[in-house]
Amino acid sequence: MTDVLSGVASPADVRALPEDALPGLCEALREAIITTCGRVGGHLGASLGAVELVVALHRVFHTPQDALLFDVGHQAYAHKLLTGRRERMHTLRQAGGIAPFLDPRESPHDALAAGHACTAISAALGLLAGRRQLGHTGHVVAVVGDGALTGGLSFEGLNNAGGSPLPLVVVLNDNQMSISANVGAIPALLRTRNARAFFESLGFTYLGPVDGHDLGALTRALREAKASSRPVVVHTLTQKGRGFPPAEADEQTRGHAMGPYEWRDGKLVRSRGGRATFSEAFAQVLGDALERDPRVVAVTPAMLEGSALTGLKARFPDRVHDVGIAEQHAVTFCAGLAAAGAKPVCVIYSTFLQRAYDQVVHDVCLPGLPVVFAVDRAGLVGADGATHQGAYDVSFLRPLPGLTQWAPVVGDDMAPMLAAALQAPGPSVLRFPRGTLPDVPPELARGLGEAPGPSSHLQEADDARGATGSAASLATPGAFPMMGARWLKRVPGSRLTLVTLGPLGLSALEAARSEPDWSVLDARRAWPLDEAALLEAAAGGHVVVAEEGTIRGGLGSAVLELYAASGVSPRVTLLGMPDVFLPHGDARVQRAQLGLDAAGLRRAGRALLGEESR
Predict the structure, then answer these.
(1) Residue 506 — very low, low, confident or very high, per pLDDT cuts 50/70/90?
(2) Residues 52/237, Cβ–Cβ less than 8 Å
């Protein structure tokens, strides 16, 4: 079957194939997707379910003259294979390789970038309007997964498009799934006779429902849509994970993101690490909080699996809410919960929190409501690339009055930080990275679970009150209060201090082990700052501030603002994510390239001291 695919270098080759060759092409595409994800991992399930749909689209429409916009790129691996990228698919999600989602810089057949959901209808309508205004021809098609219909932006686009005379084609790829099963009223409506009335009432011609695995039916429906002079919805029913038994049998996600794995003797063999992730560690302490306090409620925008909340959903079905791909709603829903006296915890990826910024400002911070934001995937995310890097949360949240931003170094920091956040009178953030929990070094382990004394290697900063003037207390028995910054290494008369946020504290500690006159300060909060500790760091004359986020407006900027306001002027080096959109790759390699590993921090410190050649 791969022989059929090997002869396809472009969509023109797809259109040139006889109809009786198309089933073989679909089988070859599925085989290629399964093999690729087995080698390097990837978003398997949605792409397997959209194979026939993608083939039919390329039979009927002529990209790039016609534009295909996928919402999102999870479903587009077959599209990549048919548009000249087959020979490089083994580099999918690897540094310098094929992008995890769609990217016009990679192929002219990718009309627009697509990494976040719910964007295709609005973008497609704008693209079509722009083309018509400039006198260009060609059709524009938005291929929308039904999960995107749980998000408000899709409905804003439908509202505008349905009232427009432009012949936008919206193909609804309905598999009843986002990452997991869709939630709410819309997915249920789509599987009833009311689907036609729903779209027609919005001004669309409705075609369907169409069997999304029947090439003949798909082709006929798409040709009819192409000939339409008004906006049209083609409603296709597909099966996520189709053609790969382990994905079909996965009731939770239908193989949403699988691999690497081997398909051996008819059985799936997957490599699994035994170490817990930061997400799993947070879910555990959140579960403890749910157990202790009936007022605690968890909310997530379609990220039960990604943020390790499926177990909590099973244990607390009425207090763990998956609201769909609806970040704005998730945040304002939490505001309502807090206003009613509940203690909501909004578990959300850093990149997706960007989508709800106004709700954070207007609905949570302005009234000072005690919502806790558990910001997952903060920092480098590796294979998911530029659309998903958690680069900006510290920078865009830091200016908001009354918002406290916590960052754990190790998993043991999670419980006291969450407890402090839940007891705070206003909003809080607890940001943590993608990845497994690090080992706890002896220096840090000695200080966990009890308040360290003045002679301890690990010390709370002398002024633990920070800029707020009050310390947060804990409800967790046996744990010491979570206060200001924390000295991981405190040297009297230190010449240089490494100031870090989050797990980079461990890299700083490693970097300073061979430097007897260096100190290491874990800021613990991006805001408010522990001013006394940071001014003590400045007294040595040299400070390196390192964070896994953008340098512009982040912790380093806050430290420089403090020093300027205080009239002190140590020499300062800022390390973090640069002023570019970082692509996909190995997060550990990228961390080293950015100088955020122990060797990089040591180099930066020595350079600041003028000791580069040491």
Answers:
(1) very high
(2) no
